[in-house]
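Hey, resending since the last one bounced:
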Amino acid sequence: MAVTPNDAIEERRREIQKKRKAQKARRRKAALKRFLVLLCIVAVITLAVLSLTVFFPVEKITVESKESVYTNEQIIKASGIKKGENLWMTGFNAEKDIPTKLPFIAQAEVKRKFPSSIVIKTTPAKAVYNIVAKNDYYVCDGEYKVLEITKEPNASLMLISGVDINKPKAGNKVSFTDTKKQELLQKLFGLLTDKSIKVNSVDITELMEIKIRVENRFNVELGSSAHIDLKVAHLAGMLKEVDEDVIGSIDLTEYTPENGRGILTRE
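The structure tokens again:
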């Protein structure tokens, strides 16, 4: 049977309609896929928002501290963390705020435990220095953070005198106005520590007349900072040579590498 022109046209029309239907089906499928992806994104965002606002409220706050002078309630209050707040949205500044607000805490660590608990761990600060400034004594740790301010020195701590400081509040670090004196202190403490010499006090009122007291029995005059490393080494040698019951003074002001001079005066 012969194919007429009309038949060819009809066949062409059906092919075009078929292609159009296929294109519409693909567009619907693509649109559905985009809708499902968007729905998933919205669901994830909604879940995230809820988890950061409604879900996971803090129900338990535990404090783990060793030898702390503060109560658990004081530590929790300083952290700013409260029950009912979201587990993931609270306590961001607690690790910084706790040692600042509670000076006798050196370090704080906040741990979150799913689904509703927070543990605060603290490490106590250790008093090392007494820095005297006019009529006040600033009790500081090894990093010069002020733990407390008193009117009387603590005899068990190293006394630092002859320095000017910014007079910070408890919880903040001391700032030395004379950087040369600060650098000298750090160097001197390092040398004395290396030689295992116990220091009771350091007076650097005059950089040319450095004075220290060691082992609670010798007042030592170092003079200037010239050859200070060798002076400390010589001092360590002198201390080893004297009996433990000897007290007095040691003069190293005239010490030089050439003369090795150190004068011990017994009381």
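The chain has five helices and twelve strands.

Sorry for the duplicate.
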